[in-house]
Amino acid sequence: MPEPPFQLVDGFGRLHDSLRISVTDRCNIRCSYCMPEKDVHFFDRSEVLSFEEIERFARIAVSLGVNKLRLTGGEPLVRKDLPVLVSKLAALEGVKDLALTTNGVLLAEQARALYDAGLRRLNIHLDTLDRQRFLEITRRDELHRVLAGIDAALACGFGPIKINAVAVKGLVEPDIVPLARFGRERGIEIRYIEFMPLDAQGLWDRGRVLVAAEILRMLSEGIGPLEVVPDPDPRAPALEYRFADGIGGVGFIASVSRPFCLNCNRIRITSDGMLRYCLFALEETDVKSLLRGGASDEEIRRLVGQVVSAKWLGHEINTAKFVAPPRPMYSIGG
Ligand code: SAM
Ligand code: SF4
Predict the structure, then answer these.
(1) Are 146 and 105 spatial neighbours (Cβ–Cβ below 8 Å)?
(2) In degrees, to the nearest 5, what angle opens at C-alpha 166 toward C-alphas 257 and 214?
């Protein structure tokens, strides 16, 4: 296929070819590092982009060189008829990679329809295999449904499946090794994600981040030595390791201890149609008004180009200047 006529390159020379699409800010569980327990304000349905609007925006992004799409939320599987959107996006010419991030609660019911709609890559969020701790972390007793979702996804043939586990110090230490064993038994990579300052309740504190180096130490003591996997794609955010015995591996999204901003290739659109050049951005650009206001594709394309041009170098979590964005993770789309 010929290269697209335009490319999204920012002021630091970073090429942007990845778009994360949040399809809802609603969720069926309440992870404490993401959502408040109650009184969550969700967008009115009229504020949320329709499938047609998402498809149009994705098509415009693809015409600018985006070739990777990931659906997220909130919990994307609570959005009615999600497989309909998946099939629209899978059909876009130029999309090389279509993936979904889910908490897995509704996956057993939807895995087959999602697979048949063209989805192949799944990240399933699971922090613990312990029912009590799952309840403590998510405030919902849904572990059995997530496990059933993982089984269903494996049975459908999704691949690769990865498990996202958020690494919060003082909370998940007992789960680090059991999760890695679970992954080794099933051919699933566990991705430990350092706790980021994007929680709705402002609980984040540097001292509550279970950093990649600490997890690596726990894994090598609990299971066995690991070795670095040389990364074929230097722009991929995860640090990859494999167990020296040849059985499986783990990854780390070390946003706090090893920020990967210099390699960033992502833009995001929120469920209410705001374009963001970074998870941590303090500003965002209203695309919904253009989509709904009769703007041409060319006008929207120009706006996306401007947003990427204005992108900052990085999030500066590790400096005194850092300011957490006003929107929490579930509202941005992690
Ligand atoms: N509901 C889906 C889920 O949980 O996977 C998709 C949305 S969720 C916001 C996306 C990912 O963000 C989750 O997989 C979880 O690992 C991660 N996450 C949520 N809050 C986080 C935080 N404060 N720090 C780091 N990762 C977080
Ligand atoms: Fe829901 Fe995902 Fe946030 Fe957990 S991390 S509350 S599953 S949106």
Answers:
(1) yes
(2) 45
Q: Does 243 fall in a domain? A: yes
pLDDT at position 3 is 52
CA of 302 to the centre of ligand 1 (A): 31
Reported as a single tens digit per residue, the pLDDT across 304-325 is: 999 999 999 888 887 878 888 8
Q: What is the domain range of residue 58? A: 8-332
State the distance from the centre of ligand 2 to the C-alpha of 334, rounded, in angstroms.
9
The type of residue at 78 is V
Q: How far is 76 from 25, CA to CA, in rounded Å?
A: 8
With beta carbons less than 8 A apart as the criterion, state whether 74 and 26 touch. Answer: yes
Is ligand 2 within 6 A of the CB of residue 26?
Answer: no
Residues whose CB is less than 8 angstroms from the CB of residue 294 and which lie 6 or more positions away in sequence, other chains included: none
Question: Which protein residue's CA is at the shortest distance from atom 20 of ligand 1?
Answer: 34
135 in any annotated domain: yes
What is the separation, in whole angstroms, between the first and last Cα of the chain?
Answer: 31
Three-state SS across 60-105? HHHHCCCCEEEEECCCHHHCCCHHHHHHHHHCCCCCCEEEEEECCC
What is the count of structural domains for the chain? Answer: 1
Distance CA 159, CA 303 (A): 35
Asked whether residue 277 is domain-assigned, the answer is yes
Query: Is 99 within the bounds of a domain?
Result: yes
- Distances in Å between the Cα of 315 and the Cα atoms of 55, 261, 279 are 29, 7, 8
* Tens of pLDDT, residues 110-159: 999 999 999 999 999 999 999 999 999 999 999 999 999 999 999 999 98
pLDDT digits (tens, 9 = 90+) for 242-273: 999 999 999 999 989 988 888 899 999 999 99
CA distance 268 to 283: 12
User: What CATH code is carried by the domain that includes residue 188?
Assistant: 3.20.20.70
Residue of 29, 128, 163, 196 best suited for mutating to test ligand 2, as the one with most atoms within 8 Å of CB: 29
Identify the H or E element spanning 226: strand 226-228
> Residue 242: beta bridge partners?
227, 249
